[in-house]
Structure formats: C-alpha cells, structure tokens
Amino acid sequence: MSDLSNYRKSYEKSELLETNIPEDPMNLFHRWFYEAEDLGGIEEVNAMTVSTIGLDGFPKARVVLLKKFNEEGFIFYTNYNSEKGKALARNPNVCLSFFWHSMERQVIIKGIAEKTPELTSDNYFDSRPDGSKLGAIVSPQSDVIPSRDFLENNLKQLEQDYQNKEIKRPENWGGYLVKPISVEFWQGRPNRLHDRIRYQLQEDYSWKIERLSP
C-alpha cells in the first residue's frame, strides 16, 4: 500500500476576495485563464476535465481541450457517437473543471450542454489540420476495436481516398456549448483555509455570489 499522507503543500501565491471580483463569472474566468497562460507556465492551459453521467448511471470524467469561451459559455468538440456524446444526449447536465496547479487555482463549472450550430462545427473542423480531420473520420470513438493496426490501416486508406479532395466534417462530429449555471473559483491559501467563491445563476439571469467554507 502506498501511504500519501505526507504529501502536503502550502498554498501562498494569491487570494480571492469579494472586493476584487466582477459581477459576472465569465469575466473572472477570462482573467484567470489568461493569467494562467501568461504567468503560470502551463503547457495546455485549456485542458479541462469533462464529467458526465453515463448510460450505466456512473459518472465519468475525461480531459478534453476547451476550444472557445464567451459570454454564452464553454465550447469543446467531440464525436457525438462517443461515450460522452451518448451520455450528453440522454443527460445534458455536465461538469467542467480546470486545475492550474502552478497558479494554485481551480475552477468548477456546472452547466447544460447543447450542440453548437452546424456552421460553428463546420468552421472549426475546417480550421483543423488534414490529419486531425481524417482522425475524426476514421475513429469510431469509444467503440471496441481489434487492434492499433485497424486504425492505422483505415487511416492509410482514407488518406488515399481523400488525396486532393476536400475533407468535410462528418455529421456525427461537432461541438458542444456548455451554458454555466454555477461557477466556483478556488484559490489555494495557507493552512488549508482556501478561498472558494461560487457564482450561481438566478431566474433573472443575474449571478448570486457566495463564499463557501473550505
């Protein structure tokens, strides 16, 4: 058995106070995101954990890349026939989380996922390298496959089929927009007295701001 009880760190880099936060959580997310990008030395600041409730009733989390965020919410792309796509089709309630360890910060977002418009998915797909486009087509994401060679051989065939041809987005691949209903910001502090500020969306679309005990 591995005993990790002595793994400890003192969090002392910053603070999160009600006197220095905006009324809208997307503004604070924007600030934290670019501070992590500019100051945090993080290789993929847009890496986030997406948690869904699977068809088997169990939650499942996986890391994907955030591709856009704005006043509406957070956008990522996937295969709609994948395990996460099927889960979201049945239950669109989703949780996103970011952990920027070098900044001693995390953000936890509860929201409702909906497919992005086809034009949005088309535009993003068109911006991808050809290899990524073909990878999206060749992979029956989350399905059981016989071997690695199965993918490699199918990719080689697709490369021949699409040589000098336009690669169009498959209908089963596209984006999700997660519209937040709750956004919690966590800032590490000394003695485990961390700052936790939660924004909750109200019926009038304003945000209620509350401090949570660590």
TrEMBL record:
The lineage of its organism: Bacteria, Pseudomonadati, Bacteroidota, Flavobacteriia, Flavobacteriales. The keyword Flavoprotein applies. Belongs to the pyridoxamine 5'-phosphate oxidase family. Residues 173-214 form the Pyridoxine 5'-phosphate oxidase dimerisation C-terminal domain. Pathway: Cofactor metabolism; pyridoxal 5'-phosphate salvage; pyridoxal 5'-phosphate from pyridoxine 5'-phosphate: step 1/1; Cofactor metabolism; pyridoxal 5'-phosphate salvage; pyridoxal 5'-phosphate from pyridoxamine 5'-phosphate: step 1/1. InterPro entries: Pyridox_Oxase, Pyridox_Oxase_CS, Pyridox_Oxase_N, Pyridoxamine_oxidase_dimer_C, Split_barrel_FMN-bd. Catalyzes the oxidation of either pyridoxine 5'-phosphate (PNP) or pyridoxamine 5'-phosphate (PMP) into pyridoxal 5'-phosphate (PLP). Its EC number is 1.4.3.5. Keywords: Flavoprotein, FMN, Oxidoreductase, Pyridoxine biosynthesis. Residues 42-159 form the Pyridoxamine 5'-phosphate oxidase N-terminal domain. FMN binds at R62, V63, V64, L65, L66, K67, Y77, T78, K84, Q106, Q141, S142, W186, R196. This is Pyridoxine/pyridoxamine 5'-phosphate oxidase. Homodimer. GO terms for biological process: pyridoxine biosynthetic process. The keyword Oxidoreductase applies. One of its GO terms (molecular function) is FMN binding. It comes from the Bacteria. Transmembrane segments: none annotated.
